[in-house]
Amino acid sequence: MTSLPLEKNWDFDAGLLPLDFANTADWHARSDPVEKLRAYADLVDWSWRAGLLTEKAVQQLLTAVEQRPEDAHRSLDRAIEIREALYRIFSHHAAGTNIPKADLELFNAALCEALRQVRIEISPEGFSWGWYDKEQDLKSMLWPILWEVARLLTSEDLKRVGECADDRGCGFLFYDSSRNHSRRWCSMESCGNRAKALRHYKRSKTSD
After folding, report:
1. pLDDT digits (tens, 9 = 90+) for 158-198
2. What's the per-residue H, E or C state across the chain?
3. What is the dihedral of CA 50, 106, 33, 2, to 10 degrees?
4. CA dihedral defined by 16, 21, 27, 29, rounded to 10 degrees?
5. Mean of the per-residue pLDDT values for the chain?
6. What residues pair up with 130 in beta bridges, in sequence order?
7. Which of 97, 99, 128, 131 minimizes the C-alpha distance to 113?
8. What is 17-207's CATH number?
9. What pLDDT score does 195 carry?
10. Among residues 7, 64, 67, 90, which is most buried (max CB within 10 A)?
11. Would you say 196 and 165 are in contact if contact means Cβ atoms under 8 Å apart?
12. How big is the chain by its Cα radius of gyration, in Å?
């Protein structure tokens, strides 16, 4: 049976699920970002660690991959296509520029596909949202992501979506929870610290 990648280095520090998914490529603002979803098993692993899949669903999907490898390849390609559209939507919003129409249309098409799978389920605790065919459709992990994207795009939280200001092309998206919306970096330990050191260097050169 196909197994999950070992010790994959995923980043879940964006603050919101849609942004975490959009961040599954490193240096995303560059012309040549570093892809982290390199195989369908990577997509399954990320989804499991994001809390979107149970261990049972993981094994069912990985078993299905062995039987339908071409479907898995197409599903991964579709996931990356959707992710790239979402990244551009949020990146343009953070920059205050126009959202590309083609990306919004792609998102809406994917959302319509996901919403066709929504159902109400009942459990001892009461009613809840659920999904049809979530163990068989190889793109099922995308449905709750698209649902959350729709909620984010239509909420006040959208105003707090930002992008790392690093000039090398970090492109990390984040939810700015600071009181005065002042966050600028993916983290102070990486891009923020570099910017601070660069400012200090420029000041020291000016004072020489």
Report:
1. 999 999 999 999 999 999 999 898 899 998 676 956 644 44
2. CCCCCCCCCCCCCCCCHHHHHHCCEECCCCCCCEECCCCHHHHHHHHHHCCCCCHHHHHHHHHHHHHCHHHHHHHHHHHHHHHHHHHHHHHHHHHCCCCCHHHHHHHHHHHHHHHCCEEEEEECCEEEEEECCCCCCCCCCHHHHHHHHHHHHCCHHHHHEEECCCCCCCCCEEECCCCCCCCCCCCHHHHHHHHHHHHHHHHHHHHC
3. 50
4. -80
5. 89
6. 119
7. 131
8. 1.10.3300.10
9. 43
10. 90
11. no
12. 19
Alpha-carbon distance of 152 to 161, in angstroms, equals 9
Taking the C-alpha atoms of residue 78 and residue 89, their distance in angstroms, rounded to an integer, is 17
Distance CA 110, CA 148 (A): 13
Encoded tokens for 51? 């809390």
Contacts of 78 (CB under 8 A, 6+ apart): 110, 139, 142
**Contact between residue 89 and residue 99 where contact means Cβ atoms under 8 Å apart:** yes
- On the question of pLDDT at 200 being above 70, the answer is no
pLDDT tens digit string along 1-30?
556 665 578 999 999 999 999 999 999 999
Domain ranges, ordered by start, for the chain: 17-207
